[in-house]
Write a structure and sequence with these properties.
heterodimer; A: 13 helices; B: mainly alpha; two-stranded antiparallel ribbon
């Protein structure tokens, strides 16, 4: 019997507390990684306890730093008697990759998100980057080629969009398009402005979708194989476990 | 002995800065085309750089780990579900 909760069960629980659909999907997608993360966390906690960290400090490290490799390195260096500056610099070096993750993901996000980007950034990890990248790319591929009503990918993260598609906008467009219905002049003005806004947004969506498809085409194929080979070689060369002690 | 609370706070701050800088450093519209294309490879490059060293032990490639990794990758490719990697990957690495 699996110790992990079923997808449906987790989904129902999250839906019950009213969390956003994207958060719910992201939460579920990360569940397969839990067994590895739990084992890693236990190993980190044992190492930290052995190094002299108290339970509160161990939990605080996980909650505030939230980066496994930096935590393990900090604990190991602390146990070996390293100074403050070397430990901090080592943590920074290990986390420099987050800058590239953020740059890579930010290309697909709208200018404003909910929650705001400084909050989203705190939860940026290796795993979330790997899981998010194909999802965002897939969604980008679903952009409408012809006007069809779908929004720009992740546009729903923009706080204003919920209001834009409701209320007056819906009322005026719906009634204005119905034959035999004559709207007052002030409502007709709103409907016309709304229609122009819609046309402008669809043109922008189409332009972006063309750009995204172009970019996706270039990012696939032999280039990915080459990148994997180079990155794997770099990873092996930089892996600390392969460094031999002199003498 | 250095102050542990201060150490945790400074590392946490430094880590957060590395996370938030990527989201705020460059305006999306201002990214040069070449850099934009290069950034598309970041997740796959990071994944390879972190996973491949784990396929070796003591500096030598480990056949058992490689077979287990290939089985796990094959399962994910076939099913398109990350869950699927747990089934062949972990048990095969134990059995082999």
């Amino acid at each position: 019997m699996s110790v992990l909760p079923s997808r449906r069960h987790v989904g129902q629980q999250i839906a019950a507390v009213g969390l956003d659909e994207d958060f719910r999907r992201g939460f579920i997608q990360m569940i397969p990684l839990w067994p590895g993360v739990v084992a890693f966390s236990i190993a980190y906690a044992i190492a930290a306890r052995t190094a002299g960290f108290g339970p509160f400090e161990i939990v605080a490290m996980s909650a505030l730093i939230f980066a496994g490799s930096a935590q393990v390195a900090a604990v190991a260096l602390y146990a070996s008697g390293a100074g403050f500056i070397p430990i901090v610099l080592t943590g920074l070096l290990l986390n420099v990759r987050h800058i590239f993750y953020g740059l890579s993901i930010n290309r697909w996000l709208p200018e404003r998100t909910t929650p705001p980007k400084p909050v989203l950034a705190f939860f940026l990890t290796d795993e979330s980057c790997w899981r998010l990248a194909p999802v965002i790319r897939r969604r980008s591929g679903e952009l409408p080629v012809s006007p069809g009503g779908q929004h720009q990918p992740l546009d729903h993260l923009h706080p204003g969009n919920g209001f834009r598609s409701a209320g007056w906008r819906c009322l005026t467009r719906h009634r204005a398009n119905r034959p035999g219905v004559h709207l007052p002049a002030y409502l007709r003005g709103i409907a016309d402005a709304d229609a122009e806004d819609t046309r402008r947004r669809r043109r922008r969506d189409h332009r972006r979708s063309t750009d995204v498809r172009h970019r996706r085409g270039r990012a696939d194929g032999a280039s990915i194989v080459l990148v994997i080979a180079l990155a794997a070689t770099a990873g092996v060369l930089l892996d600390g476990s392969h460094w031999k002690e002199p003498g | 002995m250095i102050e542990r609370a201060g150490l945790i706070a400074v590392i946490a701050l430094g880590t957060y800065v590395t996370r938030v800088v990527g989201f705020t450093l460059l305006n999306r519209k201002a990214i040069p085309a070449r850099l934009d294309r290069a950034l598309a490879y970041v997740p796959v490059a990071a994944f390879a750089a972190l996973i491949v060293p784990g396929l070796s032990s003591d500096g030598n490639l480990d056949a058992v780990r490689i077979v287990a990794a290939l089985l796990a990758a094959g399962a994910v490719l076939l099913t398109r579900q990350l869950w699927a990697a747990l089934r062949p990957g972990w048990p095969s690495s134990r059995l082999l």
